[in-house]
Amino acid sequence: MTILGRLRRLRLLRTFAASVGELHELRRAGYPLVPIIIGINLGLILEKNVGRSLLLSRDEPIIFVERPINAVILTVVALMLCCIVYSLLRSGRRDTAS
Cβ neighbours of residue 53 under 8 Å, at least 6 residues apart? Predict the structure, then answer.
């Protein structure tokens, strides 16, 4: 095995060990692990497919809103994020007012 192969294997092992340690800390803090693991896996898949879509469209982000269903989904997600931020800001104001 070459030195580069050993370094890659060592980096992968180090990343895996750090991930296991972080997941253990999250479990001790009371967070459910299944949604976190699903989110990590779906995030990796999403990142790969977004990159592929941008590559096929020659780095034009308009591909994500070109079709009406895509535009509707992105709008709904944006509205949901705005609602979350608004509720967090509102609850923060209540905490400081008390």
Answer: 63, 64
What tens digit of pLDDT does each residue of 75-89 get?
Answer: 999 999 999 999 999
The SS3 call for residue 87 is helix
pTM, whole model, 2 decimals?
0.56
**Which tokens hold the place of 65?**
């809103």
Q: Is the Cβ–Cβ distance between 53 and 64 less than 8 Å?
A: yes
C-alpha 38/C-alpha 45 separation (Å) is 11
Q: Which residues contact 60 (CB under 8 A, 6 or more apart)?
A: 54
